[in-house]
Amino acid sequence: xxxLRPAPDGGDGIELRLVNLAEGPRTGxxxxxxxxxxxxxxxxxxSPLASLQPERLPDGLRLSVTLGAKEIRTVRLR
Length: 78
What we know:
single chain; mainly beta; Immunoglobulin-like; five-stranded antiparallel beta sheet; three-stranded antiparallel beta sheet; 8 strands; 0% helix
């Protein structure tokens, strides 16, 4: 994870920038103890690209993400 910031469009939620600079795919797990209800991948303009399926926890979410070689993804959590 290289960046954590408020949603850039002034909306609710936060954005995570995920970067894999390795030559092969990598999988990581993010666990957040926040009252979140949704997770989606966003494009550079902030528009939704894909709905991700997080594991619900009593006080937050756990999300496993696999990034391909030299891939960058942005995930919005609300």
